[in-house]
Structures
1.
Amino acid sequence: MAGYFHFELIQYCEELYLIIFSEVMIFALLAFFVQTIVSNKFIGHGIVIGVFLLGVILDTGGLTDRLYMYGDAVPYTYSDMNGYGHFVQPLLWSTLLLLAWAVFSGVLAAWLARRGSETGLRTRLRAARQLFRRMRCFLPSRCLPRSAAALGTTTTRTS
């Protein structure tokens, strides 16, 4: 506050909402998936904390390959001269890849969520299979022929 007036609110929002928030969502969806699969909530908490700590342990041990460290985006730096510079594209693609896997595991966890009194994994897998069969109509490859038939646009072959 001591006379500083050049606040870069856009840069703060980019850092907070595009980078940090996506990393938090990746771990939140991992926790959602693990808590759905594991029957004991304390074991689920332990697994998620273990995944987080495993990344820190591997990083301090010198194993910094981003392919096997869950939720770890590409390292980047921000400079006043050129912003994020050449780090934008790798950061964007690695974040999108991690978010895609996290969303996939989140959807899978929603399908496998406990419903009713039966909490066994086989029962939930059967229920998820039935739910997938009911929702298969919403896939584009299934809906296009049905919508074309509903509109009366049938294709006839003329020779």
2.
Amino acid sequence: MRTALALVVIAASWSTTAFAQAPATPASWLRGAYTNISRYIPRAAEKMPEEHYGMRPGTQAEVRTFGQLIGHLANYNYLWCSQAKGDKNPAAGQDFEKTTNKAALVKAVTEAIAYCAPVYDALTDASGQELLTITQENGRRSQSFRISLLTLNYGHNNEHYGNVVTYMRMKDIVPPSSEPR
């Protein structure tokens, strides 16, 4: 867990050095990074035509379709942000990866991202150091610093947005992060 915090601090120092800004704190850097990636995911879900939601790159069934990928992002934003917030998961019992309707998936991922926004907005360096007891997907309980859990969520979003970009490029669709400013 301390490794994740160290990576946030290193990334924050690199990003501030590159842009000659005042040094960011780990919490403020993470808030900004999450805000940035959270703009792209719902827009990508909206941009992809519904007929491509069932598309997967290749024929292997264990590779998620575009729709499953969007559902997966909704599931985990709810899971990790609810734990960082100390709330019950508002989407508990739902598995958005099983949803096939584009409108329902766009709504799910948009609402999941919106659910996370105040969790990141409230994050401070002090609150980030609070040790939380979290329940993993397999039911096991473990401990994590709040900032580590939110860094995991941000990294997960970032990683899977990269997958989303690949799916979109395969269909000759310009992803939101590559649109002209």
